[in-house]
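User: Show me a protein chain along with its predicted structure.
Assistant: Here is one chain, sequence first, then structure tokens.
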Amino acid sequence: MNPSEPRAPRLLGISGSLRRGSLNTAVLATVQAAIAERARLELFPLATIPLYDGDLDGDEPPAPVRALKTAIAECDGIVVCSPEYNYGIPGVLKNAIDWASRPGFQSPLVGKPVLIMTASLAFTGGARAQAQIREAFLATLARVLVRPEVVIASAHKKIADGRLTDEATLRFALQAVDDLLGEIGAGRR
């Protein structure tokens, strides 16, 4: 890479699902491949993040939490793709947000651009979870993108072999990523 060329944006992808065959992780993997020539999207698994415990939240939090906070601090923006469980945000995602939001008002999430997507088997596409995820990130002072929401309804019919195959849905998701990259570019000026 030429030192005079700007560095490609670094995005952090977080799936709200731990399942090996996760539809949400498949969406992130598809986005990762589609934007590889213009941005780097690193997927961060949440499986090792312990349950939030204020007694462990200090100068030396658990190693997986330190890794999460470092990944957030070093990225230019975050792409979250999450399912909806019982009309809401999955516990694993809320737990990660709780850890990452510490210390309050000084966490690596403050001012960080965040794009939220949801994918669900339901016809609502995870819209109720999306609202809760948005609220949780707003409470951390992250910069949640204001744009038409990416909700992928009937995701099981649009994803095959670990990839989002529905062209219209993929185009819409990539437009959202373009908006995130635009937000990042505007913040760099």
